[in-house]
Amino acid sequence: MNLDRVEKIAEAVLYEGYMLYPYRPSSVKNQRRWNFGVLCPQAYSELQQGSDAWTMQTECLLKATPSTMLGVKLRFLQIVQRSIGKLRASGKEEPEGVEPEFDIVDRLEVDSRVFQPWQEAVEREYTSAALDPASLSSLAPLYLAFPAGKIFEYLHDEQGRAVGVIVREWENLTASIQFGSTQSSDGVFRVTVRVRNVSPFESLATTDREDALAFSLVSAHTILGIDQGEFISLLDPPAEFKDVAAMCNNVGTWPVLVGDHAETMLSSPIILYDYPQIAPESAGNLFDATEIDEILSLRILTLTDDEKREMRQSDDRAREILERTETMPEEQFMKLHGVLRGLTPLKEEVR
């Protein structure tokens, strides 16, 4: 099975809402991101009486044979807090593993480039071994640990002297993934994949959601692939499977068929139809799949020089969007305007 065949679709889901137009940290809409597929720590979720989820569940149907094998991939983003420090002793760089001496600042300008605090994200994933659908219920929960870390990146002036430092930190995360299955009829299984955020986190009445997000699984989703079998659509199941499809209990996710031959299913925190596709005319991710590429691209070009400067300096991914848009050939822009697909001849009227 090839779980990477849905990579472009999954990438769009993973980064949906990561940073929105006008792609500047000062923009109000970018002050509270991370709204899709967020699994907060259990302690925080329970304190909020479940308004912020700590678990997600996927249930789907598959037709299996004795040789059928299932693979599951869990993907999510982990928040990385970026801080900016001004070195107390300019030009002094410590050896790797030694923390430099610095003072945290809200803004640091180095050779006309401005550095500011920001929330970045790093991709995390887990891919299961090949699983037998008939034996999933005998498997114990699997715990996935992602340890905390801190790295430093020195900032140099025109003379090559270190004058500042970017500090990137992330917290300990622990997720559990559990599989289950029920045979509903000959060769048809209802498969369950349950993901929970069991990260150690002390939640108080005064705990802010921003604090909890540092210990959260963000844009969490699963991809299921099958060998020697096929998935059954939950959106449009065959008549004989409508009743059992209605029994599937999906919490915070919407499983849809992707790829070819019903061999892959994407369980997304965003509502999709079966067999979603990325338009071939799309030059890259704009982090807003609910918008039109042409409109977003044209809006980016209308930003002022100061706004583009902030966009360019805020985030590597935002800078890539700006550079890609500014260098986009005219013929590529024309392709974004619209494409007519799937024309079929009209049936002649029967006289």
Mean model confidence by pLDDT? 90
Unreliable stretches covering 5 or more consecutive residues: none
Helix content: 10-25%
Radius of gyration: 24 Å
By helix and strand content, what is the structural category?
Answer: alpha+beta
Q: Please state the overall shape, judged from the principal axes of the Cα atoms.
A: globular
Count of domain modules:
2
Q: How many DSSP E strands?
A: 13
**Main β-sheet description:** 11 strands, antiparallel
How far the N terminus sits from the C terminus, by CA atoms, comes to 51 Å
Order of helices and strands: HHEEEEEEEEEEHEHEEHHHH
The number of distinct helices, counting runs of at least 4 residues, comes to: 8
What amount of the residues lies in strands? 35-45%
Structure in words:
- The protein is α+β, with helices and mostly antiparallel strands and 351 residues long.
- The protein has 2 domains: 19-31 and 279-339, no CATH class; 34-278, no CATH class.
- It is built from 8 helices and 13 strands.
- The strands form 2 sheets. Strands 1, 2, 5, 6, 7, 8, 9, 10, 11, 12 and 13 form an 11-stranded antiparallel β-sheet that branches. The chain has a two-stranded antiparallel sheet with strand order 3-4.
- Helix 6 (305-314) crosses helix 7.
- It starts with 6 loop residues before the first helix and ends in a 15-residue tail after the last helix.
